[in-house]
Amino acid sequence: MIPFTSTTFRFPDLVAPSAWVEHVPFMFWLVDALRPRRFVELGTHTGVSYCAACQAIELLHLSCSSYAIDTWKGDEHAGFYGEEIYSALAAYHAQKYAAFSSLVRSTFDEAVSHFEDESIDLLHIDGLHSYEAVRHDFVTWRSKLTQNAIVLFHDTNVRERDFGVFRFWSEVSEGRPHFEFLHGHGLGVLALGENYPKAVEALFAADRHESGTEAVRAAFAYLGQAVAQRDNAARSAEQAQAQLARSREEWRQQVEQRDSEIAALTVEREKIRAVAQAFESANTKLAAKNDEIVALEQTVTRALELADTNLAARDNSIAMLERQVQDRDHQMIALKREMELVRISRVWRYRSLLRRLASFPDRMAFYLGRPIVPRALYHLESVTPGKQATEWTVTGDDPQLELLWSGSLPLAPGHYRLTLRGPADAETFADTRLYIDSGRGYNEVERIDLRFHSNGGGLAETIFPLYAQAAKLRFDPSDRSRQITIDHARLRKVGRLEYYARLIARLALRHLKSPSALRRSAKRAANILREGGLSGFAATLRSAEARGALGSITYEGWIALNDTPTEDDISDLRRRLAELKVKPLISVLMPVYDTPEGLLREAIESVRAQIYQNWELCIADDCSTKPHMRLILNDYAKRDPRIKIVLREENGHISRASNSALELVTGEWVAMLDHDDVLRPHALAEVALELDRHPDSELIYSDEDKIDSEGRRYDPCFKPDFSRELFRSQNYLNHLTLHRAENIRAVGGWRSGFEGSQDYDLNLRIFERIDARKIRHIPKVLYHWRAVEGSTALDGSQKNYAHMAGLRALEEHVERMRLPARVEEAPGTPYYRLRFSVPEPQPLVSLVIPTRDKVDLLRNCVNSIREKTTYGNYEILVVDNGSVEQETLAYFSDLKKAENIRVLRYDKPFNYSAINNFGVLNAKGSIIGLINNDIEVISPDWLTEMVSWAIQPDIGCVGAKLYYADDTIQHAGVIVGVGGVAGHSHKYFPRHHPGYFARLKVLQNLSAVTAACLLIRKNVFEEVGGLNEVDLTVAFNDVDLCLKAQEAGYLNVWTPYAELYHLESISRGAEDAPEKVERFKNEINFMKEEWKKVIERDPFYSPNLTKAREDFSLS
Question: What is the Cα–Cα distance from 869 to 867, expressed in whole angstroms?
């Protein structure tokens, strides 16, 4: 064990935000143990590591000269920074260490010539972290090192952003004494010679023993964390003090502002009082004028009377009046000239300019940027109540903030930049949604999925479009967040030129590392400008933004890229349709009742607009009361012979109306269309092509989305291929669904009494008589479901009777199929659950738990199984893979005393597949449970639930719902192809989140589930060859097992009703050793070769959803 001195336990005098903080105790120890005569550091930045060494040198009174060499300008890995970093360090250094230390401001290559050969005892290399740069620095300075020098390399444990220290470290440390710390981004300690002080020798000796390595690493990691935690606490205190000071200053300013407002109001009140007095005075004068007018009227009357008797006198009076009028005209002309002179004078123009300037701030505020105040609406609790909140704790599944700005002006259409400042980077605001209130309240149609970009310094920004005026904005952070912090927020309108300039800049930045790609993009841009002009170039930029090159894709962007057929697409579709040998007649069946005129016409026209022409529209009017119904239907029937109508004489609701329409059907296939919904123009064409590819199909369904009253599309439902268990949980087939007409007639059509779920009832009855392998899914949006008031498209809860009808339909389905199960409502959702019974006596389950030491994990796992599990007939097989710790061996001795627990010894190198296969070989049960040793039971009936599925004859593997310790999703099934090979569905989602279309809440078939908790019948396990212990010793063996079971004809099931905690891979440690990395590559290559087809297209996922993430976002 290495010796520690008191120097090691000191706290540093200088601390700054840096991963090096966690290595300060080791620097103290190393300087004390090595006692160098000359210390040089290449790359100092804020000086945390260098000042730690200087502090130890000064404390120990060593005769050591020290040199920090840096340009203090930054680089692409450390980031670029200003002069203030060097100035702060230089001032601190001059006061503390100038007697023996120097800051050398130059490049490393410039400085090397100033040092004589074999003069440096301790060298720290921490400059640019690329492989080439680190190697160059070591080679350049190698001759300056003494024979027994020590070299430190920082960031040996970083594998991102072109960091290459780890690669050079693996090369240079080969065959030399060395030691590597993994915390604080990793620190490599390299010895160049053989003779060192005993303490240093002990450090390198520890690296030759695994237990010694772990002990030394743990000790210094603990000390480093203590330093970092103390620094964090000090910084938090400083921030709190600063925040308090800011709050006091803001309060003082508010008080001063209020005082100013009161003073201004007082002045205004006096002005109003003066105006009132002037008004009273004017009234008095007006009364006097009225008296004058009365007197004048009397005078005029008398004059007229005199005029009647004396014409000459009247003529004289008229002439005199005309002269007076002429005089007044001259006066008016003179006044107009004077007014024109005033208008063109400087004073007038300056006052006009001032009036315009006074209104300028209000008009330009959004262009220059104005502060935004976030106000919590729902599921957020302020961490600092009583103050203007900047930090909130998330208390529910749907946190919401309203963004407030000063003034009453709405936001005008255009592009806006939203900048947020908090302690974290842009990832804090991942999966954020912005809801727009343009006068209709917040709604899903006016929703924008934001993608923030980090600008450094805690700043994150995003640019989003507004297509209409916005009265309000609602900001919904990710429901996976636990804490939301927004110190400051600012909104600024982005001009068109700036918007496009930003798009161009971001696209260019993506190609900076590839000059050839940059040249190709520039050439393509030039071609677009030449052929399409500025408008074409702008459209291309917007398209790049929608594809996600500049942010996450919205549904509008997805539509533009993937679901907007061009004229060429339509021509190609028509060509392929013309080549079809068989063109089946497709009957579109549509029951109608009092449909609004516009929606009815739109539904009918969507059928008439079909590219595929061989169709008939069979409409049954269910005795509508509105007069326009018959007029419209009769008119269309006259215009198009393919439109057939039946007018029912009494209202029988949708099931009877559907059967009436069915009587009109002459086609081989029947498609259902609701009376206010819309078919895509290519919908029936895609169906015809699918039938050409699979002529034996029995049922076809497609993807769908919703459409509002203004024709805007939203909320797409991208479905998996047929999943029986998901189908029995919810009618996810929904729209568009087509059946063979003979199948509908064979089951008796639609049944009365199941209104609201009449289609689900029909689908269940038809499913019972067909081969499920002949159910085809077209992964394209072919149907728009109308969201109107009272529709389940708008809110499923509006038709609770539909849910209950669906429950009865499923109950009758279970009875007809004679399934040993009962139907229940799925907890917390408007869907269903099938609960299978377990026979008596219960089948024996063998729970195989591989382990190696880590006794606390194993004990917790075994205890939770024994104490919480209500299923009675099980045995536990602990397969020990070389445990050596006495506490673990003692625990094994205790376990052997239990009646249903066995401990099996497997003394071979770690091979997860082989260990589990060994356990299964020794299992007595007919059902095998593969269980990780870091599993903890949550739901007592977990094993009962999983066994009830595992015993079904056509079921292969059964998986559970697993959580991390913080109650976020660790496993909700495996999606093959995500992340390259496979990924966990809904990873990191909150525990109670419903998931994508409630898939976290319902049973479903999946291609694979994790073996952290997996049940399978022993005969099935053996039939498919167990786990692959040759090609998949560690990773993906469970995915391979599930895919082999699926290939053999079994269905894999994931159930959300078996809940457990899983501390993933905590007992096995990191996978960063070179041999492990190589092994992992080989396992990936094997999976890509063996399961290429499923990786490309997992049938239980959608090709329209991303493979880059595990959150079911758009592709």
Answer: 6
